[in-house]
Amino acid sequence: MRMTAQEARRRLAAARVARLATVTSAGQPHLVPVTLAVDGDRIYTVVDDKPKTTRDLQRLRNLRASPRVAVLADHYDEDWTQLWWARADGTASVIADPVAMAAPIQLLAKRYRPYQDRLPGGPVIAIAVERWTGWSAS
């Protein structure tokens, strides 16, 4: 069944992890799992301090080439009447200024204990959501 925009926003906001879809400069899709915080029609995710081979992440390079993104959260269950997915489509920007990053990082820290112990250094990806969609089996 088609989900209302409000229900899609609610389910995405409650999700512990989602997938961020971007597109490379060569037009190839790129998908990564992310933590997130939803604030109205904005979604925030952050480059955190988990081990990475570089701070120049593919997702950041992709956003420089094209700011169009999608964020997807879903729920799977062997009882297929419990299945659902929720998606947000929008335009992303990268926030690197420490002052501008502070409020989104605090939203993320409220949701994720590791961020409370050590605030992520950023940058923050801010997504202006233009469309919330979703589906649920029941």
Structural notes for this entry:
This protein is α+β, with helices and mostly antiparallel strands. It has helices at residues 5-14, 58-65, 98-111, 113-117, and strands at 18-23, 29-34, 37-39, 42-46, 68-75, 84-95, 124-136. The longest helix is centred in the last third of the chain and has 14 residues, at 98-111. It is globular and about 45 Å long. The termini are close together. The relative contact order is 0.27.
Brief account:
The protein has 138 residues and is α+β, with helices and mostly antiparallel strands.
User: Which class best fits the helix and strand makeup?
Assistant: alpha+beta
Largest sheet: 7 strands, antiparallel
What's the tally of helices?
A: 4
Rg computed from alpha carbons, rounded to a whole number of angstroms? 15 Å
The string of secondary-structure elements, in order, is: HEEEEHEEHHE
What fraction, in percent, of the residue positions are helical?
A: 25-40%
DSSP strand content:
35-45%
Mean pLDDT: 94
* Unreliable residue stretches: none
- The total beta strand count reads 7
- Beginning-to-end CA distance, first to last residue: 7 Å
The gross shape turns out to be globular
Strand order within the widest sheet?
2-1-5-6-7-4-3
